[in-house]
Amino acid sequence: MINRFLGFFLLIGLLLAAFSVFTYNEEKGEEAVSETSSAGSAEKFRFSELLQTIWGDLTSKDSKPVDSNSTDPSEEPTEIFKAGLDAYERKDYETSILEYDRYLEKIPSDIYALYNRGLAKYNLGRFSEAKIDFDTALKIEPDNFDLLLYRGYCKSELEKREEAFKDVDRAIKLGAKYAEAYVNRAILYNLSEQPTAALKDAKEAVRIDAGSSRANFQIGYAYYSLKKYNDSINAYSKAIALNPKDGGQSYYNRGLGYLAVRKKTNACEDFKLSLEGGYSSANEMIREYCKK
Q1: What is the 8-class DSSP label of residue 74?
Q2: CATH number, span 195-292
Q3: 0.85 exceeded by the pTM?
């Protein structure tokens, strides 16, 4: 998702149409995120919208404001921008931030640089700082649904779930019809005890991306809340098949489903797998239900 979005910025200095696809967490190999977290999903702007904007803004000789107080006024802003992007692609987020700092000294109102710097900060867990970048960009372009989406993710990480929901919900209504957007709204619905709405969003995410383990996880969570335990077990089984190394939470939740349908042996097997996967809460369930 993030890399998919950032791929557009390889237009700087050259025009490339091949993008690296950014998928969430288990697919993209960046930091692991709790299945009940809203973290993680930046999508790309629409190609037709960005192509003309980025190419025009960043390569037009008539539209390159340069700060006269810059330490190196001869350095092209596009070169700095690309250095920031290259660092991001290497997952060198600190360097990426520094490059975008330099770029934004020259062109402070560039929403793409603000977005990219925000993403780098987000990946470092600096959610408050990332939110400030998204806030600044949204003052310039208030209806940009990608910016809204990621500001919502930051707010969720900062435990501001009501505000997060407003941003994610508005982003989807404005056009962020991405699987991960629906997954994250489903998470917020589940956390606010609205399983029916969560189920609808998670199923829409699966319709868009059948390989989304996170969407299947949220389906399992919603079904469990609705006391449809067998459906919950099936959904968690799909989530596990799609992402066996999820940190043990899917095994734990499926174990709860097995307990609800009185399949203690299956439940204990899942709790043990959950503990092996690093989910420490499973230890308590093992002590309570699985010790003879």
Answers
A1: T
A2: 1.25.40.10
A3: no
